[in-house]
Design goal:
The complex is a heterodimer. By secondary structure, chain A is an alpha/beta fold. In chain A, 43% of the residues lie in helices and 22% in strands. Chain A has eight helices and nine strands. In chain B, a hairpin with a 2-residue loop joins strand 12 (396-402) and strand 13 (405-411). Classes of the chains: A alpha/beta, B alpha+beta.
Chain lengths: 207, 582
């Protein structure tokens, strides 16, 4: 899909903490445990279903039909189209065998194109990142991916939320992601960092 | 040129310092409320992100800790000696293979918890050293908080046992608060959020210590958050409200919905969203004492409001545990007083104890005994039903369980029908009870007598076949006179004179002629009423009456004989009841 060369000033309800964001927003979210994850992810996706967005949830959960029922039931939005996709996070992020930042950007580009072809004017997606704990991709690669998304997502009518389980990840990942992002979610709390730095600045600051 | 390069370096350092500071506050936030291992894991794994440093070891409570990949350092013993010589601000160390190593204190000045030893191949930039000190200080505060919570929980458990320790708990809270204050003081300049957290805690603690109770806590949390605050009991009944928009009437959730919400909050272990509210549970172990809620339909509450709610909840938990402990102790003291009065006690001692409880023993009293008339009601539930009814009808406040019955020390004459109705209502649709009311008592030594009279009234109610109702001792008529005869032997002689043959016949044949005769005479000789009252067929009754005439030789139609027989059967019932009193 060719990126839309438009300025997307349209504000969409994020579904969490009364937050509204412009189309083309990418956020990282952190949670402790499944309940906090569900509270954050379900609120975000339910708002998308209510708003008529194409939604995708890349999850580590095995019982994906149960999530589908929970989300569709909670949204009260019968849909004739396939509005909600629930897929395995390892299929999304490791579909080609290894994690690759360019391949991931291609994936999101293709998914956004399909959503548009299916008649959805906007989309939102959640990527659960726990798979990265067991795969040796390196924290630097992960940070690079997240910072690349900051520049990539604003070109699409898409809101993307990447979520990390604090039980599983180290403190340095949280610090580095907060260093390189203007805004992150901590559970259902929004934390702003006015002084965030670019990924290159972060790498250059390292010894 | 050299100056320009230096300025650029300084700017880059400042930018990274500023960029890193917010993440450190976020780390502090996520460490709050975690256990010690999680706090130390988050802190030690964050170290590499601050200038590429590494953690050599965590020395806590006089021992090296294993935290994730961090193990006991190679030169652990020599490091111990060096750490012992450091003051509260930490200092340099020598670590094998590292040009630079530093011990950062886990800041808690009142009680030095330990150090985190960090090293690097080369000396890190000053701003990285500053950030490392902030990180470890934050971990120290979180650690102090975790220990404070642990101590508070332990204190709450102790509160359950005795209210006398409440004072010690308050002291402990203040001491822990002081320790926390000292620990946070080091961060005050660099961490407005932590300072705010301390302010919140201080204001709430001040409200609790000022005895403003739940209303004071609700007002303080409202003032801190700007959101309406509700404090409810476990069942959803409103205990205190602060802020605008108090619903009237206050909505009460169904039991199932309430339990569902409480269960979710219990599992979450912290504040959870419940529709338009952010709620936290005041709990002791798994027992929910109450709920504090921020009314936030627009979901505007952020981390500051959440922190205020959590602190408010901590103070509320103390308040409710304190109230519960006081209530339990007062109840126990009141039970002890009631027990002693009923058993017979020294008047002066009883008055002293009553005065200490704020109870007016000088008022006239009656002892009322209540028994459970329904099956399937557990004794404890029955006791609490009586207690609630006694409180609702304001007939008294001293009550005690004795021999499976509840004895209530009532303030003089009351509307006993209202009390009976209230108890049966408390017991539910199939609820029923019998009430016996003793004679008046004006002095402490009168209580045992009034208690016996109440029991006798109750017994007479059963012996005479009455349905569940109220029997007042003074209304027992001839039964009362008989019960007060000092020489019970003369009564027994009278009974033998008139009923001896029938009693002997009943004893040898297993018959019920005395009971039949009593029922017949109490019904004024009416066959239909007697048959119905004794659940007998008319012909059976007629047969038994003929046996009574034959065995006793008495003419049941003679007025004098009938009078003496009725007196004898009542005397027999009275003596029987008196002998079978507990």
């Amino acid at each position: 899909m060719r990126p839309q060369v438009v300025t997307m000033t349209e504000s969409v309800k994020f579904g969490i903490a009364g937050l509204s964001v412009p189309q083309g927003t990418h956020l990282c979210g952190f949670y402790w445990g499944i309940d906090e994850r569900d509270e954050m992810v379900f609120a975000f996706l339910r708002e998308g279903l209510r708003s008529g967005d194409k939604c995708l949830y890349a999850t580590d959960a095995i019982d994906r039909p149960a999530i589908q029922t929970e989300l569709n039931g909670g949204a009260d939005v019968p849909s004739t189209r396939q509005q909600l996709d629930i897929v395995s996070s390892s299929d999304v992020y490791l579909g080609g065998g290894d994690f690759s930042v360019p391949e991931m950007l291609n994936y999101w580009d293709g998914w956004a194109a399909t959503s548009r072809d299916d008649g959805f004017s906007s989309a939102r997606a959640v990527g659960e990142m726990t798979w990265a704990v067991t795969e040796i991709i390196g924290a630097a690669n992960l940070i690079r991916y997240e910072t690349e998304l900051n520049g990539f997502v604003p070109r699409y009518p898409l809101v993307l939320l990447c979520v990390y389980d604090l039980d599983k990840f180290r403190g340095d990942l949280l610090v580095d992601i907060m260093k390189t992002h203007p805004r992150v979610l901590m559970g259902c709390t929004v934390l702003e960092n006015l002084y965030y730095v670019s990924h290159d600045e972060l790498v250059n600051s390292r010894p | 040129m050299g100056t320009a390069e230096g300025t650029a370096r300084d700017e880059a350092a400042l930018r990274e310092q500023l960029a890193s500071f917010r993440p450190l506050l976020a780390l502090s936030m996520v460490m709050t409320g975690r256990d010690e291992v999680e706090i130390l894991r988050m802190a030690t794994t964050a170290v590499p992100s601050l200038g590429g440093c590494r953690v050599e070891g965590v020395y806590l409570d006089d021992d090296w800790q294993v935290i994730g990949e961090v193990d006991r350092p190679v030169n652990a013993d020599s490091l111990c000696g060096r750490l012992a010589a450091l003051d509260a601000s930490g200092g340099p160390l020598e670590v094998n293979g590292a040009e630079w190593a530093w011990a950062y204190p886990l800041a808690n000045q009142a009680d030095m918890a330990g150090h985190v030893v960090v090293s690097r191949d080369t000396k890190p930039a000053p701003h990285h050293q500053f950030l490392l000190s902030v990180l470890v200080q934050q971990a120290g505060v979180a650690l102090a908080n975790a220990r404070l919570h642990t101590r508070e929980r332990a204190s709450l458990e102790r509160e359950r046992d005795t209210a006398a320790r409440e004072r010690a708990t308050a002291d402990e809270l203040r001491a822990a608060n002081l320790a926390l204050e000292r620990a946070v003081a080091d961060l005050a300049r660099s961490s407005a959020a932590v300072q705010r957290s301390l302010d919140i805690h201080n204001r709430l603690t001040a409200a609790a210590c000022a005895g403003e109770g739940q209303a004071g806590i609700a007002r303080t949390v409202h003032a801190l958050t700007g959101l309406p605050v509700a404090i409810e009991d476990r069942h959803g009944n409103l205990a205190a409200w602060a802020g605008p928009g108090q619903p009237d009437p206050y909505p009460k959730p169904t039991t199932a919905r309430r339990e569902q919400v409480l269960q979710r909050a219990l599992e979450a272990g912290g504040p959870v969203r419940d529709r338009g509210r952010l709620i936290a549970l005041a709990q002791q172990g798994h027992e929910v004492l109450g709920v504090i809620a921020l009314v936030d339909p627009n979901r505007t509450a952020g981390d500051a409001e959440r922190v205020a709610l959590e602190h408010g909840n901590t103070v509320l938990t103390l308040e409710l545990a304190h109230l519960q402990a006081l209530g339990e102790v007062e109840l126990r003291l009141r039970r002890d007083l009631a027990e002693e009065l009923l058993a017979g006690t020294d008047a002066e001692s009883a008055r002293d104890r009553a005065r200490a409880l704020g109870y007016d023993l000088a008022r006239p009293h009656r002892v009322v005994v209540v028994t459970n008339g329904a099956r399937g009601v557990e004794p404890e539930k029955f006791f609490h039903a009586v207690r609630r009814a006694v409180r609702a009808t304001e007939v008294g406040s001293l009550l005690v369980t004795r021999w499976g019955r509840v004895a209530v020390l009532c303030d003089a004459d009351q509307d006993w029908e209202q009390l009976w109705g209230s108890i049966t209502a408390e017991l539910g649709p199939r609820g029923s009870c019998r009430i016996g009311v003793g004679g008046p008592c004006t002095e402490p030594p009168d209580f045992p007598r009034s208690h016996e009279q109440a029991q006798l009234a109750l017994k007479m109610q059963v012996e005479t076949g009455c349905p569940d109702q109220i029997t007042v001792f003074e209304d027992l008529g001839i039964y009362r006179l008989l019960s007060e005869v000092a020489n019970i032997g003369s009564i027994e002689t009278f009974i033998q004179r008139w009923l001896g043959a029938l009693l002997c016949y009943d004893a040898t044949k297993g018959a019920q002629l005395v009971e039949t005769l009593s029922g017949y005479l109490e019904c004024g000789g009416n066959y239909d009423l007697t048959a119905k009252g004794l659940s007998l067929h008319r012909s059976t009754l007629r047969y038994r009456l003929q046996r009574i005439r034959d065995v006793s030789g008495h003419d049941l139609n003679d007025p004098d004989t009938r009078f003496n027989l009725q007196l004898a059967t009542r005397a027999w019932t009275t003596v029987h009841a008196m002998r079978h009193q507990p």
